Amino acid sequence: MNKKRGWIIAAILQVLFLLFIAGSYYSIDYFGKDIKIKTVPVDPRDILYGDYVTLRFDISNVPVSKWKGETHLLASRQRTAFVVLEENKEGYYEVQSVYPDKPEVKDHQVILKGQAERIWGDTSEQMQINYGIERYYVEENTGKTLEQQASDMVVTVRVAPWGTFKITDIKPR
To answer: What is the pTM of this model?
Structure first.
């Protein structure tokens, strides 16, 4: 009797866990805040994965001077970084600062979590930050059109109060 009850509890916990994962993804739509980010050009085609667009954002390359931690922490590859974004006069979000730990922010600011890596830019030391939303899958036979416009598009990202985010819209400027 106790063994059967244990299996039922285990099954219920697994179902609840799956519902939690699905609910946390869809709750971004309800609780999240929309932000707009500009894209920059990148080579976007891979035959094996079908139609998708590879995106690179202007918030992906950030001067090391915006890093608010010890700079030796950036020497390790794929360092977790919390990027504080703030809306500019044109309505796009720009990087204000980057922290190794989650900072407190004001109401008009948003945090995106990413992986930072120190790189050498054209004129200064920079960090490359990957947010995990650089690949956006699209409907069949629509990827090539978007790829040609990839250098001049606006991406709308919905950011939940607890930090989860996803792309909700992508369109030419």
So the answer is: 0.71
Give the pLDDT of the chain (173 residues) as one tens digit per residue: 678 899 999 999 999 999 999 998 888 888 888 888 887 655 555 666 667 777 888 899 898 889 888 877 777 667 899 999 999 999 999 999 999 999 998 888 999 999 988 887 666 788 889 999 888 877 777 766 776 776 678 889 999 888 888 888 888 77
Give the integer Cα–Cα distance in Å for 53 and 43.
Answer: 9
DSSP secondary structure string, 23-56? Answer: HHHHHHHHH-EEEEEEEE------STT-SEEE-E
Residue 6: DSSP 8-state: H
| φ, ψ dihedrals at 24, nearest 5° | -65, -35
- Taking the C-alpha atoms of residue 94 and residue 89, their distance in angstroms, rounded to an integer, is 10
> What is the sign of the dihedral through the CA atoms of 85, 62, 164 and 132?
positive
Name the DSSP letter for residue 75.
G
